[in-house]
Each structure stands twice: as C-alpha cells, then as structure tokens.
Design goal:
Elements: E1 3-6, E2 13-22, E3 26-31, E4 37-42, H1 47-58, H2 64-69, E5 79-83, E6 86-93, H3 101-105, H4 107-110, H5 118-135
Antiparallel strand pairs: 1-2, 2-3, 3-4, 4-6, 5-6
Amino acid sequence: MSKTVQTKRNRETFTLEKMLARGGEGEIWTVQGKSDFVAKIFLKPDLELEKKLNYMVSHPPRDRVMEEFKFPSIAWPTSLLYADNRFTGYLMPRVSGGVEIIEVYNPTHRKKFPEFHWKALVHVAGNLATAVHTLH
C-alpha cells in the first residue's frame, strides 16, 4: 500500500512505495522516483519532535565523506514530511551497501569479510571518528 506525503516548504509531493523496516519509533519507506532517499514515518509524531527535526533540517552537519566521495555517510533529515497538513516524518539520504560496524570489528563476524584487514579497519575507524566529530 502506498502513501502520499508532501513537504511544507515547497509543497513537493512524494509517494511512499515500499516499507523497508519498522521499529518502535516508526517506519522506513522507499520514495517513488527518488532512489537516493528514504522517508522515516513516525508512529506517534508530536510537536516537540517536529521542532527538533525542523532545527536539524535547517542546520545540517558538514558531510566530508559526501563532499569527497559523493556518498552520504550521515542519514541526516533533509525535509520534513506532512500528510493532510500534519507532521508525519522526514526525508533523508538512503545510505546503502554498508554493513553494521560490529560485523567488521568483531573477530568472529569478520570472517565473513576477509577483505577487512587491519589497514581497512583503521580506515573505518577514521571514518567513524569523522562522523562522530561532525555530529558533536
């Protein structure tokens, strides 16, 4: 079942196609015609959450990985989404092709990734440090 949402700023309309995941806070949906993005739709959106996310949209961090490699490393909200003029969620870059960091750092799990030698692990640690620095 698809859903239709829109941004408040420029009234751009999006059709949410397929639910990818569902958790305690909400759902992640694919967006028709925007394969680089997904939408997070909250189960219980409220005014405080809308204010917080509006601030985040207005103050995005610098994504050095995106600048250098054209690949988003931070799934930061880019637009708030509304259904029937009520806040419902946000649009964010789709970060795909990655694995959970525990998968490459846990020696037992790392057997599935033989290409992750020590040099690669140090590189991943550097990327993680950059992301943490950017967000804090």
